Amino acid sequence: MLLVECLMMIVATMVPNLLMGIITGAGIQGMMILSAGFFRLPDDLAPVFWKYPMYHVSFHKYALQGLYKNEFHGLMFPEYEGGPKVNGDMLLKDLLQVEMGYSKWVDLGIIFGMVLVYRVILFCIIKTTEKVKPIIRAILFSAT
């Protein structure tokens, strides 16, 4: 919730209209959700735009993988119709394509780190706007 709030505040500082801000923020959220692993598995994403910038920047990826690790890590599922027992870690790696090199707590730490980065970006945008807006107004009024 903090990340969505930070992202929408960043969008609100850069977009002049309320309706444009809502549309832009929803579009950014939609693109992040599309590349996070909700609809397509990570190996099925196109590598140029969706996999490398969007998949790794999307905070939904870390939330989803942390949720999967919390629910399935260490579980053993009973055998089904005479098949072998299914390990939860195997399910995470093979079926859901979750990155198992780090724990769910690292995913949570990445999310909190993203909150801090978004807040710093918001602060920089606000300070830049405070300094640049009077200069732009002075140029516009001197031209008329």
TrEMBL record:
Residues 2-72 form the ABC-2 type transporter transmembrane domain. GO terms for cellular component: membrane. Its main location: membrane. It is a multi-pass membrane protein. The chain crosses the membrane at residues 18-39, 105-126. It comes from the Eukaryota. Keywords: Membrane, Transmembrane, Transmembrane helix, Transport. One of its GO terms (molecular function) is ABC-type transporter activity. It is found in: Membrane. Belongs to the ABC transporter superfamily. ABCG family. Eye pigment precursor importer (TC 3.A.1.204) subfamily. PANTHER family: ABC TRANSPORTER G FAMILY MEMBER 11, LIPOPOLYSACCHARIDE-TRANSPORTING ATPASE. This is ABC-2 type transporter. It comes from Helianthus annuus.
